[in-house]
Every structure is written in structure tokens, then in C-alpha cells.
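Training component of the fellowship. As part of building independent skills, the fellow (R.M.) carried out the full modelling exercise for a liganded target. The chosen ligand was adenosine-5'-triphosphate. The inputs are recorded below so that the supervisory panel can assess the work.
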Amino acid sequence: MSVAGINVLVEETRALAAEKAGVRKTLLSVRGVSTYYGSVAALRGVDLDVTEGEIVTLIGANGAGKSTLMMTIFGAPQAREGTITYDGREITRLPTHEIARLAIAQSPEGRRVFPRMSVHENLQMGAALHNGQYFAQDLERVCALFPRLKERLTQRAGTMSGGEQQMLAIARALMSRPRLLLLDEPSLGLAPLVVKGIFDAVRDLNRRDGMTIFLVEQNAYHALKLAHRGYVLVNGRITMSGTGRALLADPAIKAAYLEGGHGAPVEA
Amino acid sequence: MAAATRGAVGLPGILKDAAFYALGTFALCVPVVAFRTDAGPTGGLELTPRWGLVLALCAAIFLARLAQRLILMRRDARRALTPARSQATEAVGATPNAGQRVSMLALWLFIGIALTLPVVAALASGSLGEGRYWIDLGILILTYVMLGWGLNIVVGLAGLLDLGYVAFYAVGAYSYALLSTTFGLSFWVCLPLAGLFAALWGMLLGFPVLRLRGDYLAIVTLAFGEIIRLVLINWVDVTGGGAGISSIPRATFFGIPFTAGEDGFAARFGLTFDSMHRVVFLYYLILALALITNVVTLRLRRLPIGRAWEALREDEIACRSLGINTTTTKLTAFALGAAFGGFAGSFFAVRQGFISPESFNFLESAIILAIVVLGGMGSQVGVAIAAVAMVGGPEMLRNLGFLKAVFGQGFDPNEYRLLLFGLAMVAMMVWRPRGLISERTPSVALGERRAISGAHVSEGHG
Ligand SMILES: Nc1ncnc2c1ncn2[C@@H]1O[C@H](COP(=O)(O)OP(=O)(O)OP(=O)(O)O)[C@@H](O)[C@H]1O
Ligand SMILES: [Mg+2]
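Fellow's submitted model of the complex:
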């Protein structure tokens, strides 16, 4: 049996065990959400759930509305129809900064680090929610996760490489100690090895710290392999959902998102 | 070798280029400089040709361009041959770089000169009275330093382009003028009130422009400044309209007036009366106010609110998703910047003893903004240097007698102030596009954590 096969087995057992425990509750629930830019609909009645302790992946073509969904969860733009519930509380109409205070963090599309501030200061901004209460230990934690950052604490964020900035964006999000972490295309424009590093870090966060992760990705193969469950977004609508493995095996998905691209390995 | 070849090939090209510039200057000069129009004896216009001046200007441009190209060429050649010592990215490590060292040195130099100026002026020119010109100039410059530092909070730190800053200066000045002339309140009571009023106006401006950024914000703040000025002109019952408010009470030494009488300042302190005491006092007053502005800004930069301002300047969306309330962050920046403008305004009123809307026109806003931009948005020392250059520079020109010899007797450098402005701006944008001191010192340097105040201090040994 190949190594990949064993990995799949291990993952299945883990997912089953988690399900058997049966105590997991829905952390984020999106119901019938429609979002518009002016009069143009970007999301049309999206339903989606993220259960505590899960990695959920959302895949879709360019312009499908993935980033819009992530931003809608964060309240900018706000959903015109439908409701978003987080930890039993409706957050559809909350302003962004209050949503962030509920322990949801995001690493937005395009990283958006503070370019003229040092890496250290960027991380401090991430910890602003707790007034720096846990700063020292959290700094240690993210530096262990991304050793690159540790070497570059005094460097200006804007002068770092794309991959380093991506690590910083994730690290900054982690500094707020989120229960739910939203990642928008963390692998965008990165070398395969760096992508692997980032996905490993995501897996670690989930396995070891029990963090719930909602991942938006173009890199469908890796993302679905990593995820417990996945959704497919097409033109603002969810067209498919299922376990990561089931989606990976689906011929339609294979044809649309995997074939020939995005790092799918050539398997015999 | 490369340099030599390039030099040999480049020289005719450079000459041609400089000649081209001179030609351009000539073309510009023909309609602008070449003829002077005077009202002739018959009432018609008389043209006085000034070809000599045109020629001199063209020659000056030619030589300047030639020198620039030659210097740049040699520098490029040198750079091409020697490997770059510093990388494109900033070095990792907390040792201060050259820029930061220079700005530290400049800071102490600046403070030293500022503290001793009245003494030095008095010693150098014989008596306090004779040194008055320098002390007055110092007061003027320090007023702009303070205004620059105040506006720096809004523009440099929070990144909100404000073209109507002079409105808060006006609010402060009129607050003091009205409160003291109608209610007889003393300067020391009015000063905080003026700051408070200005801060309120800052918030008032802040609310409608919360969603605006960049160009749009600039236009609205510009309009706001004009509105305040127009209100001051037209609300004659309260503000005295265009005539302004005169006989505003003068500054006192914490209640002791600077008069020659029994209970005047000089008599109380056993000095002989000198009208300069008041001027020196005003000088130290504005110095103190400016330094307070500076200290407060530097402190705040290290506190969460200061960080939030800077983060806001960098990326508003990222800011919000980190849980920062951008509304209050912006409003505090506007309010605080305005408050310092208000303090400076009430100082202006107490110094002048007379204010009118004329003193608060758009040009003032432009000068203050220019000081902030030239100083290198966000750099405190840079702002101070820029204020000295922008305010002191034209004054210095006035003293240069030889300019009169070149440009004729009627030459008044002050009329060319705006031209100098433009030149300074263009020169800056060419040579130092990010301002005089573009280094942004991280508010936290690793290794000297004790200096950090606020919540991040207690831990942070990463
Ligand atoms: N600010 C905006 N104003 C108007 N239309 C927008 C805006 N942002 C996104 N859109 C539109 O909404 C649709 C969804 O965009 P979105 O950014 O969510 O796509 P995406 O799935 O994240 O794509 P990608 O994979 O390229 O990042 C697109 O058609 C886009 O043009
Ligand atoms: Mg996107």
C-alpha cells in the first residue's frame, strides 16, 4: 500500500473517532445567505456549516464568490438576505470589529499585512484584542510554527517575500487566539514546498490545538486532502458538499478542479 | 572601466540634455519673465524687456542640470562597480541605521538650539531688544513646528489626508479671543477650553468623513476649512467679521502681567522692566506647548491607540478584522490633532493680540501640510526640520542683500515664497520622495523592551 493510502486510512479513522465522540457542535452556520455588490449578486442563498474542531474547505473557480463568502462572514460586506450564526449567536448584522472580538480571525485574500510595520509590530496588532495579555507565549507559539518569522522579527513586513508575508498573515491571525480561523487562499503564489509547510501548519493547528479552520483554496487537491469536509461554490451557489475524500474522488470535481493542475500528483 | 566608457559616450548626450532644459526654460520665460508690464505715463501698458534676466535664468538651469547629470553619472558608475553593501531589504537586527542616528542627533541639536535661542540671540546682538527679530522668528517657527506635529497625528500617523487643518487653528484662536474679551477669562483657563472646542470640531468633521479616504477626504476637509473661514467672516455679530477681533488680552506670567507698574512681572521679580520679557516668555510658552505635543505623540505611538492609528494608515480592512474599531480610532486622531491645532491657535491669538479670518486661509493649511509631507510623514524630527526650512527659509532670503543686486532693487523675496514652495516640493519629490526623514523607527525595538509602555511591557521576551 502506498504512503498516500496509509495517510487516507489514518485520516478516516480520526474522523470516525471524532464523530463517535458525538459532542461536536456546529460553530458556524450560514443559512440562505445572499450578498450583493450594488445590484449584482455575488452569493445566492449559500448554506454552509462548520463544526467545532473541523477543517472545512471551500473550493471554486475564480469569481465564484469564495472571498465574498469569507468577507460576508466577517460582516464586510454584510449579507443582504439570510443569517450567519456563530457559537449560537447571530452575527449577520454585527460590525466587523465586533465579529473579530468573538474569537474569529481571518487571514484575508492578498495577505494584507501592515507593510511599514515590523513583523513584531504586525504580530502585536494581532494581539491587540487581548491587550497583549498572552503576547509572549503566543509569540513563541507562532515562531515555533513559522521559524522564518522568528529570524525576521525586526524586518519591515512589506519587504518580506510573498511566502513570508503569508506566514505572517496567518501568524497575525493566530495571535488573537481564535476559535475559528478563516484562511483565504493561503497558498496563493507560493512554491510547492512552502505550500506544504503552510498546509502542515494548518493541520497542526487543527490536530494539536483543536482549532476550527475554514479554508478557501484554489489548490483543490491539497486542500481537500487536508479537510474533513468540503464545499464547492459555483457562481455564488453551493453545488456540492461532502467529506474531503468523497469530493476528491468525485469525477465532476476531478474534471473541473483537479485534472492537470494545482499540484495533483500523477498516480499510477 | 565601465564608468570611463560611459563617461566618454555620455558627455555629449548630457550637454545636449542640459541644453534642452535651457531651451525649455527659455520657452517658459518668454511669456512669464521676458517683459515686465508697467503702467506708463499715459495710462497705457509699457513693456520693459528683461532679456538679461531670461538669459541668466537659462544659464542657471543649464548649469544646474549639467551638474546634476554629472554627479548622478559618477554616482551610478561608482555604484555599478562596487557591490551594494546593504541589501534591498532592511537588515535584520536592531542596531539603528544611519537615518535613525542622524535623526537622533538632529533631535538633540534641535532641542539644544531651541532651549538657548533667546540667550544666544541676546548675546549675539548685544541686548534682548536687539535680538528680538530672532526670538520672534523662533516663535513663528515653533508655532509651525507645533502645528506640523499636530497635523502629523492625523496625516502622518493615521494616514488621513486633511487639507483643512487651519480650521482648528482658527477655532482655537477665536475661542481664546472670544472667551477672554467677553467673559474676561484668563489665558490659562482658555487654553484647555480652546483645545477642547477644537477637538469637538475635529469630531464634528470626523463623523461625516468616516467612510472617506484619500482624495475624497482631502476635498471634504478642504471645504470644511473654507466653511469655517466663511462663517468667521460672515457671522459679524459674534466674530467681528472681516475686521476680526482686536485688543485681545495679552499673556500674563501665570497671572502676573508684563507691565512696568508695581505689581508687574519685572517689579515682582526684582528685574528692571523690559518689554522683551513678554516676548521671551511667549517664546518659552510655545516651546513648551510644542514639546508637549511631541511627547504626547511619541507616547501615544507606543500605546494601543497609536498602533491602531498606524495600522489604520497601512490597511483599514485588515485593521477592522483584527478587532480594531476604526470609527473611534479615526475620531480620536481627528480630535487629538485638532486639539493641538486649537492650543496653537489660542497661542497665536494671545501673541498677536489681534486676529481676523485673513490669518486662517487655505495657504496656511497648505504650508502646514507641506511641512508634514516634506518632513517625511510620521517623523517628528523631520517635521521640525521642515518647519525651520519652510518658515525660516523665506525669512533668510530677505536678508540676502546680493539677491537685490541680481534681480534689481524692487526684489522682495517674500513675494517668491510660493515659487520657493514649489521648487522645494519638486526638489524633494525628486531626491527624497518619502520626505526628509523617511525612516520609520519601529515603536518597539527588540532588546530594549523596558522602554515600552502599555500592556505589552510586562511580557515580550519572545
Ligand atoms: N468590491 C466588489 N465590487 C463589485 N464586485 C465585486 C467586488 N468584489 C468582488 N466582486 C465580484 O464578486 C464576484 C465574486 O468575487 P470573489 O472575490 O468572491 O471571488 P473568488 O471566488 O474569491 O475568486 P478568486 O478565486 O479569484 O479569488 C466576482 O464576480 C467579482 O467580480
Ligand atoms: Mg478570492
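The panel noted the following from the submitted structure. The first helix of chain A runs from residue 3 to 21. The beta strands of chain A are 26-37, 40-51, 55-60, 81-86, 89-90, 104-107, 180-184, 212-217, 229-234, 237-243.
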